[in-house]
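Late entry, written up from scratch paper. The run itself happened at the end of the previous shift, but nothing got recorded in the book at the time, so transcribing now.
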Amino acid sequence: MAETPDMLSINAGGTSIALPVGRFRTLEEVNERNRQFWLEKSEEIEKWMSDEAVLRSTINHLEAQELLRKPLGFQDSFEKALADADERIHGEDRRFKQFQTDLAKKGGAATKADALQQLILGIVRRNGNITAPQLLEWLGSHKEGPVIFDIDDESGLVEGEVRKIYFTDRGKDKSAPVSGLKDRLWRAKRKLKAEKKIASR
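Output as recorded:
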């Protein structure tokens, strides 16, 4: 059998045997990879065994298998029992830390909320039950503040015109439709809910 990129052909007693070796091309490379794999496994097992809670849970699990008289072929190996115990005890913490890391990465890459959205988030922090009409009323009473400088008067609009909120964001004058307040309020409440969930862990 000819050698292919994913197979290594060996002649064993006249019979050609093809071994899948991935990107490795010689038996020396395969053996070195195996040595590295088991070296890493040994270090992992030592780490698990040095954790008293993991080791105790592992021993309890193996003893339970014996008491239940499970056939040998169906019993977990010591290594698997260690790995499972480590996952039971520390898995949730690892997943939460990874979640925080991923969230931080997404936060860094995400577009920063504009000044109006940041203002709405601040309002929601003080009053989580505020409605969109109440929010508009609050903004209207603070339209000469550092963020809002005007809101279209509904009675002054001609037919087909969109009522807008005018605000300053990073030194620039911007506008947003009043009809979008409901969506902005929903996003602010969702963000606040996510923050509380993380803080409660």
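The longest helix spans residues 78-109.
(Scratch paper discarded after transcription.)
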